[in-house]
Amino acid sequence: MMDTLKIPVLAAPLQGVTDNVWRMAQHEVFGGLDAYYAPFMRVERSEVRRKDLRDVDPGRNQGITLIPQILACQPDHALMMVDALQQMGYRRIDINLGCPFPPIALHRKGAGMLAYPELAEELFKALASVEEVEYSVKMRIGWDKNDQWRDIVPLMDIIKPVNIAVHPRTGKQQYKGELDMEQFEALLAASPWPVVYNGSLRTIDDIRQIIERYPTLAAVMVGSGLAANPGMFAPDAVPGDYRRFHDMLVDGYTEQLNGGEAQLVRHLQDIWQTFLPGTNRKLFKAIRKSRTLDQYENAADAALNDVENALSAKPEEDNPDTLL
Ligand SMILES: Cc1cc2nc3c(=O)[nH]c(=O)nc-3n(C[C@H](O)[C@H](O)[C@H](O)COP(=O)(O)O)c2cc1C
Q: How much is the pTM?
């Protein structure tokens, strides 16, 4: 918990970004989070994806509180994942009812399940049959209607979640359009479960405002804001920390990705889609255009130099929130 906020701060899962390499680098260089949610794991061809299991392997997540997340429609798939996670020692598991990606949601998984309370009920019943595991839920307000949560939240009595993290959009909205704060408020008032707010928190000030507006929140969850500025909760961060964080990613992915240089470069380029969005456009383009690791490293080096110079030039009393 960041002292000045007086509320737990959770790192949202971002598939393709906040994996174990990113989490370890963020934790070691900046920190400030109370727990990290892992991007969802799933069953493919009747097996829990190995890549997903490796990502939550406790050996690769040392020193942090990690909450693994499962995405499933079929109860047997969900149970397979819960069993694998229990064997790794996990006792707290998050259920994804929020993923809006059409290939997933149209199979009634993630946010897609919010339109099918009968399927959610079956899933919850199966999960509740497992002993010694507690659940949380990460959800949206609905799939194609903004009040579908009204049929889903009461069903959670079956699993009695530790909390529910709510992103106040429908699945159909994906990540665009207005946040529906009216429905969020109605959900917050109606929920018997502690509620975590998640959506567009980009600065410490945004968090302060949301806590002030909703004092009953159990925690806040930060996704793209933290991907953009992993030092968001590190008031003592120095400009060189962003380079150290970046270099840890390069080392971690060099070791972990086994698809050769091209895959490594593509992954690092993907990270820059959200990382340090204030990066000078020309330098960002050079990163995007690089084809070899050498080209990438030169381009990233120039971008990080620019970021460091910009940060060093700011007077010390500036709020670090506003720097990136
Ligand atoms: C690229 C990307 C990947 C995501 N992956 C997941 C995921 O694996 N599980 C999940 O529950 N939410 C996932 N989300 C949703 C985020 O966790 C979060 O709810 C959303 O980005 C809104 O919060 P924010 O405005 O703080 O980013 C993803 C979002 C994005 C943009």
A: 0.96
Q: Determine which residue's CA is closest to atom 8 belonging to ligand 1.
A: 39
Q: State the residue range of the domain holding 25.
A: 9-228
Question: Is residue 195 domain-resident?
Answer: yes
CA of 92 to the centre of ligand 1 (A): 19
37 pLDDT above the threshold of 80: yes
Q: How many other C-beta atoms can be found within 10 angstroms of the C-beta atom of residue 162?
A: 16
DSSP state of 108: T
Q: Tell me, yes or no, whether 282 and 182 share the same domain.
A: no
Alpha-carbon Rg for the chain, nearest whole angstrom, is: 20
**pLDDT at residue 316 greater than cutoff 80:** no
- Domain count for the chain: 2
Q: Which range has the worst mean pLDDT, 59-63, 208-212, 252-256, 318-322?
A: 318-322
Quote the DSSP letter at residue 301: H
User: Is residue 92, in this structure, part of any structural domain at all?
Assistant: yes
User: 109 Cβ partners below 8 Å, 6+ apart?
Assistant: 71, 72, 73, 96, 99
The answer to whether position 320 is within a domain reads: no
Write out residues with Cβ below 6 Å of ligand 1: 12-16, 39-40, 69, 96, 98-99, 138, 167, 175, 198-201, 222-225
Tell me if 104 is assigned to some domain. Answer: yes
Which atom of ligand 1 is closest in space to residue 224's alpha carbon?
A: 27
310 has pLDDT over 90? no
306 shares a domain with 180: no
Output the CA 135–ligand 1 centroid distance in Å. Answer: 19
Q: Which of 228, 259, 283 is the last residue of a domain?
A: 228
